[in-house]
Write a structure and sequence with these properties.
The protein contains seven helices and two strands. Strand 1 and strand 2 form a beta hairpin. It has 214 residues and is mainly alpha-helical. Helix 1 runs antiparallel to helix 2, helix 3 packs parallel to helix 7 and helix 5 runs antiparallel to helix 7. Strands 1-2 form a two-stranded antiparallel ribbon. Helix content is 70%, strand content 5%.
Length: 214
């Protein structure tokens, strides 16, 4: 049951990130096309009128009127919020897959016995830090004015800032999950050239003793 819930959480996390980044990219692309289409249609209409190209000027005017009738002033704000949510959940995914930047030169020089408490301490520090951030974020969301809304979308501010406690608590859970798996199996996740890999602890075996020939 725990493994099933873990897989569901993994897939849900990945789907949320994929949908958010795809939707934000589409919204940004449409907003850019809308903005440049409206401004450039005026330039084309003026150029066509100067050269006696009546039909080109009429088409450019129609494009300008059509595009300006569409209000996309909210697009940039929505894309920003989606990228922020994606970043918070992506940070948790980064902990699970081991893709965060880290300096492990010193750790790799340690023996497997000495390396164990260092890795456990590091993951506990990460869990504690993100847990504190999540708690502070939850307090901030709780104390927000319910009537406070965003400038363009006019969404409740608590709905937007909810990504702080949710993403931070999920990140803290991922740190604890990595630590628990390391204590059970000795494996730590890291992203290699072929995707997600798991690095096993280095176990040194003593060199064989060669007995002198009799």
């Amino acid at each position: 049951m725990l493994n099933l819930l873990d897989r569901i959480l993994d897939r849900l996390e990945e789907w949320i990130i994929c949908l958010l980044i795809a939707a934000a990219t589409i919204v940004t692309f449409v907003a850019v096309v809308h903005r440049y289409g409206a401004s450039n249609s005026v330039t084309v209409a003026n150029w066509a009128n100067g050269h006696g190209l009546v039909w080109v000027a009429l088409v450019a005017d129609w494009v300008y009127v059509t595009l300006t009738a569409i209000n996309l002033s909210w697009a940039q704000e929505l894309a920003t919020y989606m990228f922020v949510w994606m970043a918070k959940f992506g940070a948790a995914l980064g902990v699970r897959t081991g893709i965060h930047v880290g300096v492990d030169v010193f750790v790799k020089q340690l023996s497997p016995t000495a390396r164990r408490p260092v890795i456990v301490f590091a993951t506990l520090c990460g869990a504690l830090f993100t847990g504190v951030i999540g708690t502070l974020g939850a307090i901030y969301v709780y104390e927000l004015d319910p009537d406070q809304v965003s400038p363009e979308l006019e969404w409740p501010s608590w709905m937007i800032y909810l990504c702080i406690p949710l993403g931070s608590y999920l990140m803290s859970f991922r740190f604890l999950q990595v630590m628990w798996r390391y204590l059970k199996t000795g494996y730590t996740p890291h992203a290699g050239h072929h995707g997600l890999e798991y690095e096993a602890p280095v176990v040194t075996t003593p060199a064989p003793v060669i007995e002198p020939a009799r």
